[in-house]
Amino acid sequence: MIEPDVENWLHNVNSIINETDELLQKKADNSGCSCFNPSLITRYKHGKKAFKLMKDNISPLLQEKRDMGTEMSYPVILQETWATPEKGYTPFESRESTLKEIVKALNDFNVNMIGVHGMPGVGKTTLVKEVLRQVEKDKLFDKMIFIEVTQTVETRMILTKLGNKLGMQLTNKDISEMKMRLHAQLKNMEEKILIIFDNVWEVPDLETTGILEAVDEGKCKVLLTTRGRDVLKRMGCKVFEIGILSEEESWRLFKNTAGPGHDFIKASEVESLAKDICKKCGRLPIAIVTLAKALKNECDPRQWEEALQQLNKSSRSNFEGALKMAYLSIELSYNYLRGEELKKTFLLCSLMSHQASTLDLVKYVLALDIFERFNTVEEALNKVHTLINELKGSCLLLDNQTNTSFSMHDFVREVALSIANRDDHAFSVRNEFDWEWPSQDKLEICEKIFIHDSIISDQLGDELECPKLESFFMNNNNSYVEIPEKFFSGMRKLKVLDLTGFRFSSLSSSLHLLVNLQTLSLKYGTFEDVTIIGKLKKLKILILQSSNVKQLPREIGHLTKLKLLDLSYCRKLEFIAPNVISSLFRLEELYMRKCFALWKDKGENVEQSNASLHELNHLSRLTALEIDIKVENIFPLDLFSKEMKRYKISIEDQSSSHCTLCTDREHWKIKSFDELETFRTVKLEHNSIIWSGRLRCFKNVEFLCLGKLQGIKNVLTGLDEEGFSQLKVLHVRDNPNILVYC
Asked: Going by C-beta distance under 8 Å and a sequence separation of 6 or more, which residues neighbour residue 185?
């Protein structure tokens, strides 16, 4: 929210802009006149008015802006996703009474904590969102904060989300300080708040965050959804149970989903089959919707007969009762996916994290050769986006309105993991304190291992014998774990190795035995020496993001098949051996944000000096680049010979200040952070260099931030004579000499 003084200042600025536009229009109207007519006098008058406008209005406004300082706005709480009616939401009679009772409980002064529980996929979240829309309409609360909780109750994540919704900046703080600040904020608030924790697995920490005290004082109420009734009992909640639908409601939901108007279902040969299939869904909404979607607008009775036959034949011992039928319906949706590429991608999605990165999925599919016809990262990324959209359309992935990440419904994931274990020889562990490796017989045929958020210190063993293993993922957020020296010696066919958050001091010596490795991801590692990685000659993707690596040695230059290199946020990286970057001639994507390596000037001739930015010119296949440069005089005039498809480039001097508006999507009225993150971005912050002609390869820039540029008075044509036709956001700051923006 913008401060009132700033609002007034902006109003005055807009008035001056309008006056300036009128003056420019008058000038344009006379621009075609001969110099031997009275237009000379007119031009003189216009110039005099412009000088007076600058002196009497623009200069004082610029001084006012400097006097304002940096605090010009404060965060606002964005509209929640539940505020918009759910697409395709169907009100059910069996739920209406529960909905009204929950609203009544929220009105009850004596009820402060309310819990909604039910089996996965039964519609708990959908019902609660409808409750919130009713509560908002009745204005029962001043603020409502919706927080989605994963299986691992991550305190920092919850605190950060709460802080953001309350207009607080809690990032980069330790947990205790975050709790203290949040506690103080809640204690001093006069507004009445409703906090919703969706999909709770364990009791969240309400005491040290100040939420419990706010509840006791009547300032705050808490609404939770969960699968387990015991969580709600331990919290002393008033409990509401959501059951499965009635047969009539199930059939109505099935028909509405399978096809608007559903005239084809009314055909005698289809209707009886459709009803039988609907019954097999066990009256579970998630199962009904996914299966009906798979058969949407299908008019051929044989397809319905085949679907029913598959439902009757299949059986899974670990899903009983209604869950068994729901499992079979989800499995049938999987069976109806078109092609092996889509099926393999779906199973791979289920093995990944709750809110997985699309780029992380790309690093798997490229190495595992799931897409046989695609050789470049860009092609694979486009294909992944297409398949993710298909899976969302089949209700097998959640439609979270973003292209950079994806997520999966809990129940759908459980079914997918069961299929992956059976068909894809996958072993997966999530959020387990006490777990064991499968038997050696199963390890012998295991092809994929994914260990998420689980205690691993005692489980590693000296060596893992998995001769057919192709993918290995394991993250560690809890303790220091050393990888045994021979740990990788029994997995020679490994193609993807992803170790996230490991705090080992050095890389295992058996790493060099992974001669077939194509993707290596070592995010947040505390190791410093990466020399051994240079022996992995088949490597296509190398991710060292946020690691403690200090040098990029000459050996990395041996990775001539590398297509993607991620060094972003490697803040300790200072030395890059000369000719390493230029040796990676197949490199398509290079990420070095917040990695301020000491690039040398091309003219330097010092032994053991750093690499030069000129080496980037040798990367003819480069299509994506993210880089921050802090020393202005080392940026070469001839850098980049062609336009790139994706980039974020920042060139600043050492004294440049951080620009917070560059990441403020609300300020630029951009719909989503995802959209802002995908903009082609150039940020220039320089005191001395005139940049005319240096941005020719960035004509497709979408977000341009300019600060402290000298010698430029016309922003766009001064930087490039042809301008920037795809520009969406222009941010100019600390440039009092700039008079024209187009």
From this structure: 163, 166, 168, 210
Distance CA 402, CA 675 (A): 8
DSSP state of 506: S
CB proximity list for 375: less than 8 A, separation 6 or greater: none
Please tell me which residue, 733 or 277, carries the higher pLDDT value. 277
DSSP string, 446-488: --EEEEES---TTT--S----TT--EEEEE--SS--PPPTTTT
- 77's tokens: 């709480």
Give the whole-angstrom CA distance, residue 187 versus residue 210.
7
**Whether 517 contacts 494, CB under 8 Å:** yes
Please write the tens of the pLDDT for every residue from 595-612: 877 777 655 554 557 888
Confidence of residue 740 (pLDDT cuts 50, 70, 90): very low
Is the pLDDT confidence value at 688 over 60? no
Q: Is the dihedral of CA 513, 519, 522, 527 positive or negative?
A: positive
Strands (E), 130-192: 143-148
Torsion angle of C-alpha atoms 691, 696, 702, 703, degrees rounded to 10: -10
**Alpha-carbon distance 333 to 313, whole Å?**
15
- Nearest Cα neighbor of 667 from 2, 89, 125, 121 is 2
The DSSP bridge partners found for residue 683 are 650, 705
Can you give the pLDDT at residue 34? 46
